[in-house]
């Protein structure tokens, strides 16, 4: 298609579609096509759809780790901090879905993204506990051993992750806490 019409990707903003071909490629999990699109137009990685999601949001939620790597390599880590209409960044979505490999990739690319809170004050650690994703929590704990303040950070109601763990009956989190891997209340 690009050989027949070299400007086909440039004409898309004039259409009524909010998703770019990159959004669709990422959702379908097509790594090679994603790479080809990024080579042709790297800026497409920062385009948002109607939900203000970049392709990185979609790849992160779907757990397409290689595609996440390609997107981060294509435009850098700026997309890591873009919020969707619900105020979530790609790391929040990966955490909510328990995509541990993607969590590792995103935090490696943009470590400060772990400090981005949702509108209700929840951190990525709160999301791990709330959604029951202990593996993602372990990855975050391994990667952020120097950011102790986030462990004591409360959500909008003042609950730390240990408060949340108790409320959601996440015994594994409480056990990890006992061995000082997750701070104190």
Write the layout of secondary structure elements.
Layout: H1 8-11, H2 21-28, H3 31-40, H4 55-62, H5 65-75, H6 90-96, H7 100-109, H8 124-131, H9 134-143, H10 149-152, H11 161-167, H12 171-178
Helix pairs in contact: 2-3, 2-4, 3-5, 4-5, 4-6, 5-7, 6-7, 6-8, 7-9, 8-9
GO cellular component, one term: plasma membrane
ANK repeats: 86-107, 120-142
Pfam families: Ank, Ank_2
What's the average pLDDT? 81
By secondary-structure content and strand pairing, the structural class works out as mainly alpha
Q: How does the major sheet shape up?
A: none
Helical stretch tally: 12
Low-pLDDT regions? none
Specify the overall morphology.
elongated
**Compute the gyration radius: what is it?**
18 Å
Query: In percent, how helical is the residue content?
Result: 40-55%
CATH superfamily of the largest domain: Ankyrin repeat-containing domain
Q: Please give the CATH architecture of the largest domain.
A: Alpha Horseshoe
ANK repeats: 86-107, 120-142
InterPro entries: Ankyrin_rpt, Ankyrin_rpt-contain_sf
Keywords: ANK repeat, Repeat
Pfam family, one: Ank
Summarize the structure in words:
This protein is an all-alpha fold. It folds into two domains: 1-116, Alpha Horseshoe (Serine Threonine Protein Phosphatase 5, Tetratricopeptide repeat); 117-185, Ankyrin repeat-containing domain (Serine Threonine Protein Phosphatase 5, Tetratricopeptide repeat, Alpha Horseshoe). Helix content is 51%, strand content 0%. Helix 6 (90-96) packs parallel to helix 8 and helix 7 (100-109) runs parallel beside helix 9. The longest helix has 11 residues, at 65-75.
